[in-house]
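Action item from last meeting closed. Structure (140 res):
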C-alpha cells in the first residue's frame, strides 16, 4: 500500500501507527473500538436513521393533521424533566457530531485536506450547536 495516503478516519493521531501490510487481516471493528469518537459517531448515525424520521413524522405530519393529539402541557412537562432534557439533548448532540464527522470525511475525499481548518470548521460547528442546545435546555 505504499504511495497511498491514509484516510484520516475517526481516530486522529492516536491511530497514526495503524498500518496494513500485505496479507495481514485487519479487524475494522477492533480499530473502531480504539477510536474515541466512534461511539458518538455511531450513536449519531442511529439517531439520524431511526429517531429523527419518527420525530419528523410526528411533529411534521401526524400532529398538524390531527391524527395524533399532543397537548402543549404534556410536551412542556417532558421538556422540563431531566430525562426529557437528556433525550432532547441526545436528539441534537449525537446527530450534530455524526454530521461533523461525515462532513470532515467528505471534505477529505474531495481533496480539501484533513488539516486543522477543516477539522475546526466541522467539529467547531458541531460543538457550537451542542453548546447552544445545552444552553437552551438548561434555560427551560
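Sequence:
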Amino acid at each position: 500500500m505504499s504511495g497511498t495516503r491514509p484516510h484520516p478516519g475517526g481516530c486522529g493521531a492516536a491511530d497514526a501507527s495503524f498500518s496494513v501490510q500485505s496479507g495481514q487481516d485487519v479487524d475494522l471493528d477492533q480499530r473502531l473500538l480504539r477510536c474515541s469518537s466512534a461511539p458518538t459517531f455511531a450513536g449519531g448515525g442511529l439517531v439520524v436513521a431511526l429517531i429523527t424520521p419518527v420525530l419528523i413524522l410526528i411533529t411534521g405530519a401526524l400532529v398538524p393533521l390531527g391524527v395524533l393529539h399532543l397537548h402543549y402541557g404534556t410536551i412542556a412537562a417532558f421538556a422540563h424533566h431531566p430525562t426529557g432534557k437528556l433525550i432532547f439533548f441526545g436528539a441534537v448532540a449525537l446527530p450534530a457530531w455524526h454530521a461533523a464527522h461525515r462532513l470532515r470525511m467528505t471534505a477529505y475525499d474531495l481533496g480539501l485536506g484533513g488539516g486543522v481548518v477543516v477539522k475546526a470548521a466541522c467539529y467547531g460547528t458541531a460543538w457550537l450547536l451542542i453548546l447552544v442546545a445545552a444552553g437552551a435546555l438548561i434555560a427551560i
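Note appended to the action item: The two ends are 54 Å apart (CA to CA).
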